[in-house]
Amino acid sequence: MTSTSSASDTADARPLRTAFVGKGGAGKSAIVGTFARLLARADDEPVLVLDSDPMPGLAFTLGLEIDDAGIDDAAVVERAEGEEGPRFRLRPGLSAEDAVEAYATVAPDGVRFLQIGNLRGGVGSIMRSQHAFHQIKSELPRNRWHVIGDLPGGTRQPFLGWAGFADSVVVVIEASAKGLLSGRRFAKLAGSVVEPDRLFAVVSKARSSDDAQQVESRTGLRVIESIPWDDAFADAEREGLAPLDAVPDAPAIQQIQSLVHALQGVLT
Amino acid sequence: MKVAVVGKGGAGKTTTSSVVARVLARGGASVVALDGDTNPNLGLSLGVGFDETERLVGMRQALDADEGDGDDHAADWDDLLDRFASTGPDGVQFAVVSQIDNPDPGCP
Ligand SMILES: Nc1ncnc2c1ncn2[C@@H]1O[C@H](COP(=O)(O)OP(=O)(O)OP(=O)(O)O)[C@@H](O)[C@H]1O
Ligand SMILES: [Mg+2]
Asked: What does chain A look like in DSSP terms, one character per residue?
């Protein structure tokens, strides 16, 4: 298995392994796409973004035009009769790291982008890429690679093992009635997945200076950053453009930049 | 009629469903609104309030905690509504049919 953290290795900066979760539409993909590129600019370790949502979204924020970045079927072999283990796995000799180098889509700033696959051909069509996705998630070496996960909205995936690669979780929360109620549920569920000091809230689409305070008091989570509601950012997203390229000085981007520093500060 | 509302996160599924349910109810239809989200917020949009929404979520979860079956299976639809639905504004009957702590494993 992967190495575990101990007092002796805290001297080396450990790459981030962070899952972004939250209510549908909270802003997870918008934040992750921008965050990953800013992290790649700020740090030498390579950045892998995992998109386990079969619906398109994150690719646009990253600045990619594709909406299908699943692992190529050719990278995957089917279990032979009588063999143990999962039905599909990476072909023999192809390590998780090789698979990322060879098959993950390269996004701007050198970010590697890997999707679970899309459902264009029905659920059966993502069987191979889905298995490869899970294998890469669990086998990629911990001492290299920042791994940032953008999970689909809701509580289903994050707390069913899909966030298992992560040692830190960011709950993205809007300070609306539904956002706050959802945030409280996420806080409760995430408590069983990561250590309390590795669980954070990010306020999304903040409209008042009071939002962070509301999120903290309603969810009990520590707010590590607030991203303001930002019209320029929203307009870029609406056009399908990466906000980081279209409006690099927008206020939301500046706050996502400070989120990169803040998380690196606490976690590495 | 039976309508399912689906779409991307934040697209407005919950809000739209709640308004459709209440408008139908005001027109005289008897309406049942079911929240099938693993993060169920429909109660807030219908106007039943935080506490009632959370109470119904809790009720749905308690069902799984209590595995004992046998003769306490609900007889029919009306019986289910009696036990698990709450009546909200405009007479819309509202129940939570998903639950969040132990969602079924499986596809994404
Ligand atoms: N700070 C912001 N200011 C304005 N609009 C924003 C901001 N952050 C996100 N948005 C917009 O909110 C909408 C939802 O964002 P996004 O798709 O990132 O949410 P999500 O949490 O990934 O949703 P899903 O649950 O469907 O995956 C998008 O239109 C996005 O552009
Ligand atoms: Mg998303």
From this structure: ------GGGTTSPPPPEEEEEESTTSSHHHHHHHHHHHHHHH-SS-EEEEE--SSS-HHHHHT---S--PPPGGGEEEPPTT--S-SEEEPTT--HHHHHHHHSEEPGGG-EEEE---STT-GGGGHHHHHHHHHHHHHS-TTS-EEEEEPPSSSTTIIIIITTT-SEEEEEE-SSHHHHHHHHHHHHHHTTTS-GGGEEEEEEEE-STTHHHHHHHHH-PEEEEEEE--HHHHHHHHHT--HHHH-TT-HHHHHHHHHHHHHHHHH-
